[in-house]
Specification:
6 helices; binds S-adenosylmethionine; globular; alpha/beta; seven-stranded mixed sheet
């Protein structure tokens, strides 16, 4: 049983509009090029494919894509864009669900491994990725670096977005290694803010490398963004690639 939180119908119905900025062809191009190159002539499996923000355009590029997704409402939004034969999706937990066939690429983007709230589940997710890969295949994760350097003693929250329509900040449980992302989003009526919060388990890049080793994968590459900028001490996120030995 996963400890991930359920993504509801209301969330699914709003998702594409709220993520419009990160869903445009221009915004997605570097990620699609990165993933398509790693998939090569093989098939790609997206863990937590959601509404298909990445999976649908990757499929349109010619890469055969299969998805695993926990939330039926999120998958239903994807299904309005593409049929089951073109992009099959299995409803299930990415830490444990097995789909048929082998893949040259398994990928898990947009901070989504943090939806698995325990270390055990995150390790299982790596194991599940390895299970689906051909020898020589790659597992790719996009994940934020925990922003703990912005949390001096006595401060309880770190803001990550302060804009006209949205106020976002994280609060931390440093013992459990979890954080809660709080969102206050302005709806059409400008006097009204909608409040939402989601819990995540944060993990350092080095912890993910160890999870990969437990799953029998070797680190191949770590960069700061989809354009391949070097990962540095002030990088806010990383794209990491692990390879299943041939
Ligand atoms: C931030 S969205 C990302 C969706 C998509 N990958 C994207 O880039 O737009 C997170 C997604 O992860 C899904 N999810 C959360 N926990 C999951 C799990 N244990 N197994 C599969 N999907 C999960 C949610 O239902 C949601 O669709």
């Amino acid at each position: 049983m996963t400890s991930s939180q359920l993504w509801t119908r209301a969330t699914a119905d709003r998702y594409d509009a709220e993520e419009a900025e990160n869903s445009s062809a221009a915004a997605l191009e570097p990620a699609l090029a990165f993933l398509a190159e790693l998939a090569g002539d093989g098939r790609a499996l997206e863990f937590a494919i959601g509404t298909g923000r990445v999976g649908v355009p990757l499929r349109e590029r010619g890469v055969p894509v299969v998805g695993i997704e926990l939330s039926e409402p999120m998958a239903a939004v994807l299904r309005r864009k593409v049929d089951e034969e073109t992009l099959p999706v299995t409803i299930g937990d990415m830490a444990t669900t097995v789909v048929p066939g082998e893949f040259t690429l398994v990928y898990l983007v947009y901070n989504t491994i943090s939806n698995l709230l325990t270390q055990d589940e995150q390790v299982e997710c790596f194991r599940n990725a390895a299970r689906h890969l051909v020898p020589g295949g790659r597992f790719v994760i996009e994940l934020g670096v925990p922003p703990l350097r912005f949390l001096p003693p006595g401060q309880v929250a770190v803001p990550f977005d302060v804009s006209e329509r949205h106020l976002g900040f994280d609060t931390f449980d440093l013992v459990e290694q979890t954080l809660v992302s709080h969102h206050l989003t302005r709806d059409g009526d400008h006097s009204h803010y909608r409040r939402a919060a989601s819990r995540h388990r944060y993990a350092w890049p080095a912890e993910l490398d160890l999870m990969a080793r437990i799953a029998g994968l070797e680190r191949e590459r770590r960069v700061a963004d989809w354009d391949g900028a070097p990962f540095a001490e002030d990088s806010g996120k990383h794209i990491s690639v692990w390879r299943k030995p041939a």
